[in-house]
Amino acid sequence: MDERFTGSFTQQEPIPEDGIAAALEVMRHGRLHRYNLAEGEAGEAALLERDFAAFTGARHCLAVTSGGYALACALRAAGVRPGDRVLSNAFTLAPVPGAIANAGAEPVFVEATRALVLDLDDLAAKAETSGARVLMLSHMRGHICDMDALMALCRRAGIAVIEDCAHTMGADWRGVPSGRHGLAACYSTQTYKHLNSGEGGFLTTDDDALMARAVMLSGSYMLYGRHLAAPPPEAFETVRYEMPNMSGRMDNLRAAILRAQLRDLPAQCARWTERYRAVEAGLRGVPGLTVIERRAEEGFVGSSIQFLLEDWAPGDIGTVLARCAARGVALKWFGAPEPSAYTSRHDSWRYAPAQALPRTDRVLAGLVDMRIPLTFSTEDCTLIARIIAQEVGRAYQGAARRAG
Ligand SMILES: *Cc1c(COP(=O)(O)O)cnc(C)c1O
Fold this sequence. Notes:
40% of the residues lie in helices and 14% in strands. It is of the alpha/beta class. The longest helix has 32 residues, at 252-283. Bound molecules: pyridoxal-5'-phosphate. Pyridoxal-5'-phosphate binds at residues 66-68, 92-93, 95-96, 138, 140, 164, 166-167, 188, 190, 201.
């Protein structure tokens, strides 16, 4: 009898008790809108911004309604105009090209490497030919490229970097927190990310003018003085007449839930990576399966894991996924021709001009993805890896037999 896994790949942990208590307090006093404050009260949203800025080391932080909102807001606040071209990853999730479209701009996709990071040679070439002034860099699935090389390249090319840290909240590159290399960084607090408020996001930057524009865009009216992690009122002198209000404010209820979780974030990140390492250890040495080696410089958070079934026939990959699913292990394949669940490919974002990305296509054709929720124990992770290893092994041997 084959072993089965019975846990849920979509079940997160409960909100910590102190977060529930803080949320109840907000509901009891009823001041949920971030600018609805009693005398002398700072408000949970402003306090959360102060706490998150301190956590990353950024001077400024704005809490908003989603990670996707933060991305579009960052592009606008960085001066991206309708019709502009914006460089971005060919391998990412739909909110990233969606944010570029939201700003009226056009994505120019950069190839991914076999290590699932941005291909810096392709970036250098497209930085020169595209006319883009901004790179929206997605640290997709938590894989961080050589940030020193990337920043040097972008500085030389005069390209501003906006980091999408949806999968790298709490991660670092050579000790520098992810999101602290570029001009601005965006994070998500949607249920499947590293903090969970259902929906939500952050925009961080050290740049006074950018943050003043973002605060106005987010719908501060003339109440920006109530922020605790924004530039002083002088920075809003002209900006307040220039930026449209595109409401996307965080509320005090979600902020209360998030502040409690933020205190535990470093410990939670360590728990994710412990689980990741347990899965990774079980996948090493499986014939036909390529583990994606993480670099020593990368302080990643293992909230999901990827591996490659390189140059496999699509039918054989489908067999592995179906057999794993039958044994309770939910895997996603980035090579599927049709978008499904949370995965889609650059060729299904048809609002963007079609682009030839042969290297990315080759990587995605063999790319398998799995979420690692913290509700799994490390023993669960070892069992899951055993199931994947067995099914990959069976399909690989089957293919070898057919090939004779
Ligand atoms: C989740 C996610 C976002 C932002 O998502 P929201 O659902 O808008 O908070 C951005 N980029 C990536 C890669 C994501 O996975």
